[in-house]
User: What shape does this take?
Amino acid sequence: MRLLRSVDQLPDDLRHGAVTIGNFDGVHRGHARLVERLLATAKSLGGPAIVFTFDPHPVRLLRPESAPPPLTWTDRKAQLLDELGVTAIIAYPTDEALLALSSSAFFQQIVQEKLAAKGMVEGPNFFFGHRRAGNIETLKDLCQKARISMEIVPPVQVSDEIVSSSRVRGAIQAGDVDLARQLLTRPYRVRGMTTHGAGRGAKIGFPTANLEAIDTLLPAHGVFAARAYAVAGNWPAAVNIGPNPTFGEQALKVEAHLIGFAGSLYGQPLEIEFLSRLRSIKPFDSVAALKAQLHHDIAAARQIEAQDLNHDEDTVG
Assistant: This one.
């Protein structure tokens, strides 16, 4: 994976190719279609396929109070784009100087001078430059004048609705990670650090890793089938997001039971990939009733994770 954070002194093998510019938050199926066309353009030009994105999202500087929570962190975004086959990802540091550039200045300084692009691939809802003054027609005109090829890729639809980062965000906020899976190129994933909890899960036979410092959007409250990625490997997991009403705890917690794992994860990074929603959070009349439900949740999570793994292997094969 080639992830760069500057366009100064860009290696020559990353110039003179095809470029697409955008936030690519979540890396959904619409993004995948863009990348598919980007790769085709790069091949026809005999150059690299470059994704130019921003870190952080420009709205975090312009309107921080209305900035949506991100769906991916930068390294994860680059990993997902790399899986789609791009040559390199440029995560350009967003600053006031960049945001002050007019659309024509951005095109000249970044697209022409730094990237030396020969082709561009964008969606129809593309905006760029100071105050988003440039749109897809502006870009089309600039490319024509600069003799740079340009392709506008239509949006992708799933269930008769356009796939967008906003739609993915809405699904996750509703806890519908199953729909999110249909919209994304990979199941939705969060990361955090494991911390000490009350230890109540271990006392009843279901130890959990408590996840904090999560820097992306968290799904709505519920119990989920998941896959957990730790330093030592990955395991199927049953994940609880929300309060613990059976024990009178109302604070939001993210607790993951790694199925088949034995050991300590305290102080280690952990990533959780959500495969399916199992049920809502609810109080139980007794610890015995809670334990019975947890056995059911774990069996369901194990089965879903195994089916997902087999599906991935069949797809690769």
